[in-house]
Amino acid sequence: MPLEVQVVSPERILWSGEADMVLTRTVDGGEIAFLNGHAPFVGALGIGVTRIRPASGDDVAVAVHGGFVEVSENRVSVLSDVAELAGDIDRARAEEARTRAEAALRQEHDAEAEAALRRAHVRLEAAG
Amino acid sequence: MAGGQERVLRRRIKSVQSTKKITKAMELIAASRIVKAQQRVAAARPYSEQITEVIRNLAAAGAGGDSPLLQARDQVATVGFVVVAADRGLAGGHNSTVIRLAERAVQAERAQGRDTALVTVGKKATSYFRFRGYELAASYGGFSENPTYADAKEVADLVSERFSDGTFDEVRLVYTRFLSLGTQKAVEARYLPLEQVEADDAAGPSADYEFEPSPTEILDRLLPRYAEARLFAALLDSAAAEQAARQRAMKSATDNAEELITKLSRVMNRARQDAITTEIMEIVGGAEALRQGGAGEDLLVDTIGGTGDLFPDTLEPHRAHV
Question: Which of A44, A73, A46, A51 is nearest to A7 (CA)?
Fold first, then answer.
């Protein structure tokens, strides 16, 4: 039996369907994979790429900038107020953002630029 | 004069007609936007349902309720009000209903000796309260028809911050609920502190969840999101209600214009007919008067006929003065 997966943002359901595996990263930095029959789980997600291996077809990568995951009874729900599907990511813009953040970091070490750089990295990683 | 009246009426009909064109267009636009707004309300629902479910699970796992957003104060000195109205008017009673409800609630709190602070969303609410000399803690506008999550986050963050730092001891949310196409209702609801979501006892400890990090830590991260989602839902509901109210208001305006046009056209036609009738009466009367006054003689022809040759072939030469 495959997993029922939903990736939900406040404005819409980004992705939903059946999948064999979901791979994500919790806030403490640990990667965690959910397979069929996983124990009930609630976790806070950090900034990272969540990968979904659908029952058929290619992997789906989602750039998640913080959020939550809930797993119960073979249902996996990923909640994130800022999440982007790989297909929706504008590579050129993400790269531009990375360059900008790197330049800002060279000038001065502030948390905002660092976060921007991380976001840009995650976007690019998801976009593949 | 009769002709003048007709002209005035024609001008009025034309002006009502162009007003009708505008209201009709607004009606159609609003009608198409309601559908979109409703879809957005529906699209936002899975997120809030899921987040509520996660909170319920956390509560069942005994997550500590010491997040600042959950703490009810014993002494409520200042009540913050978040008033959600529209940016534009021409939406029937949409704005005035919600604004009136908010103002009454504010007055009630003041009567009990509490301080109040207003956070207005939507230009109409902002200008109403500013004009009446209420002090605005913050005001937002420009997104009432199409609120994004980022807009909701901005408002929610400010309000949560004011609540956490003790500026507000309680926050109420005044907005319009979209119940159906025909019914929208202005409501006042407690926004902060957040309602404790009770663990679902009936379901029992259905599942022993694993948590990472600890339940309390997750809850602390989750509650701000929950507050944002609630505000976002209120904004979306108000946006849908605004469109529905506008559609209804514009429909009745269009109907009114149509009725007015019919009425004015009728009056105008009567005026025109009156004018024509009067004119005919004048001509007929005039002719009759002439016929009778000349005793059967036509003034021109008869006289000409009677005098014989009007233009003799030969003209008599001028005689010299005697």
Answer: A51
Domain positions in chain A: 3-86, 89-127
Measured distance CA(B148)–CA(B235) in Å, rounded: 9
User: Alpha-carbon torsion B183, B186, B187, B191, what sign?
Assistant: positive
- Per domain, the residue ranges of chain B are 22-196+208-247
Measured in degrees and rounded to the nearest 5, phi and psi for residue B136 equal: -100, 125
Interface of B with A in 82-141 (CB under 8 A): none
Give the span between the Cα atoms of B130 and B124, in whole angstroms.
10
Which of B41, B49, B54 has the most A C-beta neighbours within 10 Å, making it the best mutation to test the interface with A?
B54
Query: Tens digit of pLDDT per residue, chain B (322 long)?
Result: 456 788 899 999 999 999 999 999 999 999 999 999 999 999 999 999 999 888 888 887 777 667 788 888 888 899 999 999 999 999 989 999 999 999 999 999 999 999 999 999 999 999 999 999 998 999 999 999 999 999 999 999 999 999 999 899 999 999 999 998 889 999 999 998 887 766 655 444 555 788 888 888 888 888 899 999 999 999 999 999 999 999 999 999 999 999 999 999 999 999 999 989 999 999 999 999 988 876 555 555 555 555 556 566 666 666 656 5
Tell which CATH classification among 3.90.1720.10, 3.40.1380.10, 3.30.70.240, 3.20.20.70 matches the domain B22-196+208-247.
3.40.1380.10
Cβ contacts (< 8 Å) between A26 and chain B: which residues? 212-213
Architecture of domain A3-86: Sandwich (2.60)
